[in-house]
Amino acid sequence: MKAAFLTLGCKVNYYETEKMIEQFRQMGFTIVDFREKADVYIVNTCTVTNIADRKSRQMLHRAKKMNPEGYVAAVGCYVESSGDAWKKDPAIDAAFSNQEKTSVVYQVMQDLGLVPRSSEEGKRFVSQERTRAYLKIQDGCNQFCSYCMIPYVRGRGRLVSKPVNEVVSEVRKLASQGYKEVVLTGIHLSSYGVDGADAREFVRHQGEPLLSVIRETAAVEGIRRVRLGSLEPRIISEKFLTELVQVPEVCPHFHLSLQSGCDNVLKRMNRHYTAVEYKETVSLLRKYFVLPAVTTDVIVGFPGETEDEFGQTRAFLQEVGLADIHVFKYSPRQGTPAAARGDQISPGEKNRRSDILMRDTEEYRRNYGENFLGRKEKVLFEETTVEDGISYLSGHNERYVKIGVPLGRARENGYRENGIYDIEVEKILVK
């Protein structure tokens, strides 16, 4: 039977989808592209915004339209946040919570009346990216930002870290299958190793549990790069960076969530730092790493955000000069404090502010990428990309800048996908 998968949302979801794919393959399913007709469709959903909810529903309906007789399952955060609403949706045949993801394959086979085949040892770990593997090492969040449902749908605020020996075992498996880069992810990665602690305990530990698992991951033979998922700005300290810079496999690419450059808005969001503290964190990174790629998330149109407060965020971003920004329009999540506020911003105004920051971001991204023109960079090639009618072998450097070499020249030089090569950069590709 054929099974197709689609992942929405965070890198943790991508990791969890990869594990589900591996299980389905071991049970004898053929994995096909989500756009193809399949017997089983699995949509790993997201619920961080209303837009994410809508996208999840759209993809579930698209699957049912591709094969009305197929089995369509919704998995993950949308299932947990929507209550029993999915039962009224004719496109959805089954739903599984985040905690049930590891048993999806068995439930699906039971529903379909299939007899499981014995799994084969040594099956290739199927990744949605051929060269980069996502490894979830932490789950849960107890920060309770006023706009976010994640603590309620990911373990009710409970923190769970994967033991170091289990992480190393999985990394060795990935290395044996040819993966050269591992991305360590988590719902609140900075809380790795402080399970059961209060919301600020990870700061007191100064990231030592996370540093430990980073060192062990980097020490696995065959792993050339270790990239980190989103980090809490408060985990970045002189002590943390003094240790981190000693691990050469660590990519100098740091995604530090900001959300707003205005202190009043940050306070309403229940974020636990100020704009000045965030800027100091970025300065520390630039002290210890050469041209670090610092990227972030920003929410526009948060309830009560005035034009002046939006202007403060825009000015702050221009001052800090990040490598890339993911801009999100605030979307109310029922059950969160922010959704209950009466000072919601109109959709039109949120669109306007988003458009402004998106234009700014194009400039930030271009300015950062130009730093690497003419430099020698180590590029992990991943795929063939076409831009302006020209085919390139493309990949990313350690700072996640997308770099291309004309395909003909790449083949002449013996460059291949999933290989890391020293390249003199001539072309930065648009993301």
Structure write-up:
This protein is α/β, with parallel strands linked by helices. The protein is 35% helix and 21% strand. The chain is built from 14 helices and 16 strands. It has helices at 11-26, 50-66, 77-81, 104-112, 150-153, 164-176, 201-204, 208-218, 238-244, 263-269, 275-288, 307-320, 347-370, 407-412, and strands at residues 2-7, 30-32, 40-45, 71-76, 94-96, 132-139, 160-161, 181-186, 225-228, 253-255, 293-300, 324-329, 376-387, 390-396, 402-406, 420-424. The strands form four sheets. Strands 2-1-3-4-5 form a five-stranded parallel sheet, sandwiched between helices. A four-stranded mixed sheet has the order 7-6-8-9. Strands 15-14-13-16 form a four-stranded antiparallel sheet. Strand 13 (376-387) and strand 14 form a beta hairpin. The longest helix has 24 residues, at 347-370. The protein is globular and about 60 Å long. It starts with a strand and ends in a 7-residue tail after the last strand. The relative contact order is 0.09.
